[in-house]
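User: Need the bound-state model for adenosine-5'-diphosphate:
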Amino acid sequence: MNVQITSADGALIALLSGEIDHHTAREIRKEIDSQAEKLHPPVLKLDFSQVQFMDSSGIGLIMGRFRLMQLLGGMLLVINVPPHLERIISLSGVGALGVLQYKGKE
Amino acid sequence: MNVQITSADGALIALLSGEIDHHTAREIRKEIDSQAEKLHPPVLKLDFSQVQFMDSSGIGLIMGRFRLMQLLGGMLLVINVPPHLERIISLSGVGALGVLQYKGKE
Amino acid sequence: MKPVNEMQLSFDSKSNNESFARSAVASFILQLDPTIGEMADIKTAVSEAVTNAIVHGYRDTIGTIYIKSQIFENGKITIQIKDKGVGIEDVPKAMEPMFTTAGGERAGLGFAVMQSFMDNIRVVSKQDKGTTVTLTKYLIPRVLSYDKR
Amino acid sequence: MKPVNEMQLSFDSKSNNESFARSAVASFILQLDPTIGEMADIKTAVSEAVTNAIVHGYRDTIGTIYIKSQIFENGKITIQIKDKGVGIEDVPKAMEPMFTTAGGERAGLGFAVMQSFMDNIRVVSKQDKGTTVTLTKYLIPRVLSYDKR
Ligand SMILES: Nc1ncnc2c1ncn2[C@@H]1O[C@H](COP(=O)(O)OP(=O)(O)O)[C@@H](O)[C@H]1O
Ligand SMILES: Nc1ncnc2c1ncn2[C@@H]1O[C@H](COP(=O)(O)OP(=O)(O)O)[C@@H](O)[C@H]1O
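Assistant: Bound-state model below.
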């Protein structure tokens, strides 16, 4: 399983791990969405610290959760993006959604 | 490079590493043999502690060095065989050559 | 120029083969002693092209995906990813960033990633015949440990 | 029984493709969530068969080696390694432990390893036509994470 979901201070935190591609993104999405739709958290955090590989399916995963949280009236944060994923994240422009949170900025 | 050669107490020690197959065994063999033929050491030790993968080319490597050391009037020792290589070592029967040395037996 | 090494691969267009496909290409490229960054770039680009063949090329059907990779003397690598699926109507439009016909969870960034992570991309497609994407990358020059035998 | 997944691979009979071949097969098998021991067994057996095709099948020439791997519903895996090289004159004799026609650094243990590390091996060979080795392994039953889509 490439996602572990926990709750802390009202926020839902999804710790992603391993390789995110179109195949694994599907399970990850299902897991996160069922929890978010049940709990309606004010904040959903996607923690990328344990992600070893990611293609544009990971970007789709972020954009899709952004839309879901807008619908649910909450907000999305993308946290702990490791250096090796910065290139695809910046190419994607998801930064413009205001979801990227870096250490020290909390 | 899959081999590092050092000398200690008159023995020649070849620290093997990575994956030993027919391709990498060739370089390893050349490296060891050129040193052994130059130095005529009384003992050649093959250290398998850093070997992650090995097929029967590794067995050929042991048998070939055994013959070389016999020619040179020295002896061969195979040291630090990790658990994941024990199966192929025992299947090969190289133990019958009396070259296997285990910890605590030194 | 003749390649110094070549491999071909084919497999079912099932999504659990995505990781297999990029790992297999990575294993082939490993003999050129690439940097970790070069390896990540190649794996990501291959993952995009293979996913496109599965998601768009063959849509709800299962077909065969073909990969051919060649290594050249000067550190040039080509990787061809081919499907015999529906094809692309308008290639230049399909290659625009954010353009997607799939919607939902597709970001429309597959071609943008391939373009940015590789040195060259060529797309040949014919409707109802299929699509061939050819990716090229030049590994940064260094003392190659590549052995021609 | 129809396989639930299948891949085919072909590459030049160059010794630096040995690690590529076993890694590619390993990447394909990974979807069945094998144990580390099962994975090591399969990689070792594939390495033996591929080395034989390079060293004996094609000897001093460069030919193409073909691999086909299939995964079945019940955890059964088959891997076929084929060359169009010189072939084997006497298969039962070739399969005897310690028998080798190469001498020198070959231990004559390739077939013994394949036999011991896999559940079944079938060798079909014809002189001047080539050799096909089919390896079969049954992964120990467990809750498979394999996804049929
Ligand atoms: N192999 C293919 N077969 C058919 N159509 C394709 C193929 N690859 C890409 N396309 C088309 O090009 C569009 C853009 O592709 P891409 O940039 O990878 O974004 P995405 O995959 O996220 O849609 C796709 O939405 C699809 O319409
Ligand atoms: N693909 C092949 N083509 C031709 N001959 C082969 C092939 N595989 C095996 N052989 C023959 O079978 C013999 C035994 O093979 P094996 O048990 O793997 O030991 P080794 O490779 O160490 O010689 C080889 O020496 C060779 O004569």
